[in-house]
Every structure is written in C-alpha cells, then in structure tokens.
Write a structure and sequence with these properties.
By secondary structure, the chain is mainly alpha-helical. It has helices at residues 11-22, 38-49, 57-64, 96-99, 111-114, 120-125; strands at residues 5-7, 28-31, 130-132.
Length: 134
Amino acid sequence: MNPIGVIGSGHAGITAAKALVARGHRPVILDVGEGLDSETQEVVDRLGRQSKTEWDDADLQRVVRNDTVFGDHPKRLAFGSDFVYAGNRGRAPLNVAEDGPSPSFARGGFSGVWGATMSKGSFGTCRSPVQRIR
C-alpha cells in the first residue's frame, strides 16, 4: 500500500485522515505546527496554574489584547497573538489584502481561533503520526 500524506492538522486534515483510516489506510499528517511564542505561552501556563484572584493585570492584558480590532483588517487572536495567520511569513509572502485570506501554519490551522481546537488525543484516533515540517 502506498503512503498517503495529509497536509495540515486542522479540521479538514483530521477529517480526511479519519476517512482514510476508515478505508484501511495509514495516512501521515504533515503539519508546520507553529504555536504561541514562548513568552506568551509562559504567561498562559502561569495563568492556568493560578486562581483568578492571583492573576497579574499585566499578564491578563497580554493574553486578551487585540490591537487589530480598530484597524483595516481585524483578526481574531489566540491569547493576544496572531501566530495563526501566516500571510506575513517569508514562506507565504502574500499581500493578504489583495490575495485573499491568509494561510495558516498553526498546529490545528485556524481552529485555534475560529472554533474548537483539536486536542492531542484526537490525533491518536487516526492511528497516524503527526510530522512537523521545518
């Protein structure tokens, strides 16, 4: 049986992989897998360990801010970060205003900001290894 690659681990990629598994294939999910920058992830982790009464105002402002709201192209952000939008990356040099929607290199695609995210446990149901592209 020839190997089958599924590009991306967003909802469409996971759905495609599950359909392939149901047909007896063992797909490999290829994903760039970008995530939050380490400083923002540290703040998110710290807030997660604390009760609301212990939250620092600066930490809270960092994860809820959205400076794009009043601009020409407002975005829905994840913990104050626009990492899910890859239109400004060297690998995807697009003029998003002219070329259309931004691609995403985020683990799980746009699901991190526009819907329920795919948990790591979901990948196991596909019996398929997720490989990060570098």
